[in-house]
Write a structure and sequence with these properties.
- The chain is an all-alpha fold and 365 residues long.
- 73% of the residues lie in helices and 0% in strands.
Length: 365
């Protein structure tokens, strides 16, 4: 073969082809130093061979790591905001619980719509999930209305404690519809919850008729306790629906269905009852605005806590709702809870705490 002359080499270089030394047969070709330097090591890439992407990503992750206990702080702040919101619900006078729920839905809708537009998730949702989103909206709004109604009928502490029986009903409903395992531990927690509710309600057929005779507001108290229990059932069904949906739907879209369906339901119920009226007192109007603000703030901090902390510790810290409810009831209403309420509260909190610890231990295995 005739070797290339200088003219041919120049033509090759001008045409954009690289000049290479053709090794002779049997000769050993050593890698160039530049090639050795530019070859990425383990965890590196061709764009940044001198600084492996793996180590860089690890350094950035360490820089962005949340402060220890930040998730629990968010949960505590969420519990405080929810408790303050329930205090305002109790303070509002001459406004039906359904109307309070409607005002909260309007306020949250004004916040959710810009978020949905920014996130470009749409307002309808995936075709296969719309029925579940609609159920989530109906059940969630009913749970909200029932909780506010319970706050108006019975004491703040009693309604809050009974609402904490929600995890027990969640386990039962999930076992029926999602075929999740219902263990003997779940049955034990259910027994503790039922015992706590009985101690709070104190039915006459167990505690004697003199309780109902001495307490003139006993019938209202029982009605409020049953409404709070109904709230726990609806909240449990909402959680099962959300578990069924999973991560296939943006959580903002789930809140949107909760808000819009709840508003439509509240308007229909208020039209039937004829209870729609604006509050006469300026303080009540302020309370309605604050109920929406604190409710939305509690939801946001709780969602943020679940993003950076495990569900078990978050569920344990959520029991601070009961503590805040007792404190607010004593300070703002001068209503000292009875020992029956304290005993029932301990039973319900023990049940929810035990369920949270068990789920936490199962997730860490």
């Amino acid at each position: 073969m005739r070797p290339l002359d200088d003219t041919g080499a120049a033509k090759r270089q001008e045409s954009g082809l690289p000049l290479m030394d053709i090794p002779s047969p049997g000769s050993r070709q050593e890698p160039a130093a530049a090639e050795v330097v530019e070859t990425p090591g383990p965890g590196g890439c061709w764009q940044c061979p001198s600084s492996p992407c793996g180590s860089r990503a690890q350094q950035e992750a360490e820089k962005k790591a949340p402060c220890p206990g930040l998730g629990l702080f968010y949960t505590l702040l969420s519990a405080f905001l929810f408790s303050v919101g329930s205090l305002f619900v109790k303070k509002v006078q001459d406004i039906h619980a359904v109307e309070i729920s409607a005002f909260r839905c309007v306020f949250q809708m004004l916040i959710i719509i810009p978020c949905l537009i920014y996130r470009k998730t749409g307002f309808i949702g995936p075709k296969g999930q719309r029925i579940y989103l609609l159920l989530r909206g109906v059940l969630g709004s009913n749970a909200m209305i029932l909780l506010y109604y319970a706050y108006q009928l019975t004491s703040l502490a009693d309604a809050t404690v009974i609402s904490f029986s929600c995890p027990v009903f969640t386990s039962i409903i999930a076992c029926v519809f999602l075929k999740e395992k219902y263990s003997p531990w779940d049955a034990l927690f259910t027994a503790f919850t039922i015992t706590g509710v009985i101690l709070i309600v104190r039915p006459p057929f167990l505690f004697g008729s003199e309780i109902a005779e001495t307490d003139k507001d006993y019938s209202v108290h029982v009605k409020g306790a049953l409404v709070a229990l109904a709230h726990a059932v609806f909240a449990a069904m909402t959680l099962v629906i959300l578990r069924k949906i999973g991560t296939s739907v943006d959580y903002m879209l789930s809140i949107w269905y909760y808000v819009i369906v709840g508003l439509i339901e509240c308007v229909i119920v208020l039209s039937i009852l004829g209870e729609w009226r604006l509050p006469h007192c300026g303080l009540d109007r302020l309370f309605l605005i604050l109920i929406g603000m604190f409710g939305l703030g509690g939801q946001m901090f709780l969602a943020k806590a679940l993003q950076i902390e495990k569900a078990g510790p978050v569920a344990l810290m959520k029991t601070m709702d009961v503590v805040f409810a007792f404190i607010f009831q004593i300070i703002f209403f001068n209503d000292m809870p009875s020992w029956w309420t304290v005993g029932g509260s301990l039973c319900v909190i023990a049940s929810s705490t035990g369920a949270a610890i068990r789920k936490w231990c199962q997730s860490t295995k």
